[in-house]
């Protein structure tokens, strides 16, 4: 073979390789993805409906099964979605044609549901928070397991699917505001309807009669059954954690992503149940300070008692990044010769925009299932967000400072 023959042969082979890859990608993008739903409560119903809307719009995705440990909800979901129902996720996961599951169970179940699903070779869209605050060791185990299994795992922090955070992060890394030393963000809202207002489907519900109370408790301390503990689980530290773990992942995730923040060095937190009473034992207010080893603090504040928030912003040695509903603006400080940049948001983050973000987030997951790419709210990012939140809860509960050792991935209270 002459050199030119060989070049022609090689470029032909490379061309054939490229064509084969393009065909494989095209057929992967056309493959109908079959999705199951675990947890058919408020959020699960919304997510299941969203998948069915995608199907109606002609997207190659289909909801094929549903699972719930509360029989009346399972039966309702089977009828509403017209799909096969399972009382146990393990049975649903045996379906070899199932590609992925959406997990919308209470917080304490997430890590078990996700581990079981990835071990059954399914991709996972898991609602936030990725684990309950008392499950640090299990979280670590899950992350390490998925580093081996490489399933696509998206955590349901949909705010991160506004690409403005990535675009601002890129500019910040290129020095648009100098060295970042400080950031602040928040999650404030008014009302306890998300906890005390959770509906009690049946005030006479009893364990064993369509209620799998044993599974519902996961690894929580064993308690006597009450309908409130089953249906209003967000009121209780055993199954939830108040704003810190319920809503803070929403805003902390994009901030951590934008700043490319790794694991924290130190976290302190303070807060409590300052206003709401009744059966609630989770805090309604929580403030935390997170310090990173490169010399940067994030202050995160929030409460469910009053909706007046603080601005999300990042302070650098040469300028400031400010987040509004519409954009992230990078502003140089006085005397700094750098351009002011306004990076528009993909969608507004309130009202209509909120559900637009959820739709973008689910689509990002489905797309990554096809490309085997990394979704915007992937498990590694969720780990970097959940570690400071778990440390904050421990700091608050024990009145101590929480330190993190990134080499051994351990938390120490001092
Ligand atoms: N991303 C968001 O904006 C958003 C919004 C709302 C809720 N969420 C998250 O969604 C999750 C569910 O919240 P919700 O308000 O829908 O709660 P919910 O109580 O309405 O629904 C949870 C359902 O899971 C079922 N369940 C419990 N353990 C199960 C198990 N092991 N297997 C199968 N089913 C099980 C329950 O019976 C219940 O029907 C929470 O983690 C919450 O943080 C996220």
Quickly name the level 1 CATH class of the largest domain. Alpha Beta
Return the structural class: alpha/beta
Strand segment tally: 16
What is the domain tally? 2
Characteristic terms for this protein:
2 domains, six-stranded parallel beta sheet, Dihydrodipicolinate Reductase, domain 2, 414 residues, 13 helices, ten-stranded mixed beta sheet, Rossmann fold, alpha/beta, binds nicotinamide-adenine-dinucleotide, 16 strands, globular
Account of the protein in words:
This protein has 414 residues and is α/β, with parallel strands linked by helices. It has two domains: 3-159, Rossmann fold, CATH 3.40.50; 164-197 and 232-346 and 381-413, 2-Layer Sandwich (Dihydrodipicolinate Reductase, domain 2), CATH 3.30.360. Helices cover 38% and strands 21% of the residues. The strands form two sheets. The protein has a ten-stranded mixed β-sheet with strand order 14-13-12-11-7-10-9-8-15-16. The chain has a six-stranded parallel β-sheet with strand order 3-2-1-4-5-6, with helices on both faces. Helix 6 (136-149) runs antiparallel to helix 13 (379-398). It is globular and about 70 Å long. Residues 38-44, 67-70, 73, 89, 104-107, 109, 127-128, 156, 158, 215-216, 246 line the site of nicotinamide-adenine-dinucleotide.
Layout of helices and strands, plus pairs?
Blueprint: H1 3-30, E1 33-38, H2 42-56, E2 61-67, H3 71-81, E3 84-86, H4 89-92, E4 100-103, H5 107-119, E5 123-126, H6 136-149, E6 153-155, H7 164-173, E7 180-188, H8 213-216, H9 227-231, H10 243-246, H11 248-258, E8 266-272, E9 285-292, E10 296-303, E11 312-316, E12 319-323, E13 327-332, E14 341-344, H12 352-371, H13 379-398, E15 402-405, E16 410-413
Parallel strand pairs: 1-2, 1-4, 2-3, 4-5, 5-6, 7-10
Antiparallel strand pairs: 7-11, 8-9, 8-15, 9-10, 11-12, 12-13, 13-14, 15-16
Helix pairs in contact: 5-6, 6-13, 7-11, 11-13
């Amino acid at each position: 073979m002459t050199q030119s023959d060989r070049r022609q042969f090689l470029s032909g082979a490379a061309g054939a390789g490229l064509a084969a890859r393009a065909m494989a990608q095209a057929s992967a993008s056309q493959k109908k993805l079959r999705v199951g739903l675990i947890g058919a409560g408020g959020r699960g119903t919304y997510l299941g409906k969203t998948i069915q809307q995608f199907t109606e719009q002609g997207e190659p995705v289909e909801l094929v099964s549903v699972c719930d440990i509360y029989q009346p909800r399972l039966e309702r979901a089977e009828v509403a979605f017209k799909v096969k129902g399972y009382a146990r996720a393990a049975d649903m996961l045996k379906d070899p044609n199932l590609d992925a599951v959406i997990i919308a169970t209470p917080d304490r179940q997430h890590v078990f549901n996700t581990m079981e699903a990835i071990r059954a070779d399914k991709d996972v869209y898991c609602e936030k928070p990725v684990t309950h605050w008392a499950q640090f060791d299990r979280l670590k185990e899950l992350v390490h397991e998925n580093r081996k299994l490489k399933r696509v795992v998206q955590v349901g922090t949909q705010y991160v699917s506004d690409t403005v955070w990535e675009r601002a992060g890129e500019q910040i890394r290129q020095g648009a505001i100098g060295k970042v030393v400080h950031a602040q963000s928040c999650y404030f809202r008014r009302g306890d309807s998300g906890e005390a207002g959770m509906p009690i489907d049946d005030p006479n519900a009893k364990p064993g009669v369509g209620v799998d109370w044993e599974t519902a408790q996961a690894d929580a301390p064993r308690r006597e059954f009450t309908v409130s503990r089953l249906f209003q689980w967000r009121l209780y530290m055993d199954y939830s954690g108040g704003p810190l773990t319920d809503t803070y992942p929403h805003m902390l995730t994009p901030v951590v992503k934008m700043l490319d923040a790794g694991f924290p060095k130190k976290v302190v937190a303070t807060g409590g149940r300052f206003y709401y009473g009744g059966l609630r034992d989770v805090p309604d207010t929580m403030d935390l300070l997170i310090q990173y080893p490169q010399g940067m603090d994030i202050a995160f504040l929030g409460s469910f008692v009053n909706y007046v928030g603080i601005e999300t912003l990042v302070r650098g040695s040469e300028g400031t990044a400010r987040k509004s509903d519409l954009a992230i603006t990078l502003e140089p400080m006085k005397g700094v010769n750098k351009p002011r940049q306004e990076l528009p948001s993909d969608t507004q983050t309130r009202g209509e925009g909120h559900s637009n973000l959820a739709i973008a987030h689910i689509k990002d997951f489905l797309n990554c299932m096809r490309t085997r790419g990394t979704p915007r709210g992937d498990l590694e990012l969720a780990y970097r967000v959940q570690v400071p939140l778990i440390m904050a809860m421990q700091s608050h509960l024990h009145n101590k400072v929480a330190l993190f050792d990134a080499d051994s991935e351990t938390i120490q209270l001092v």
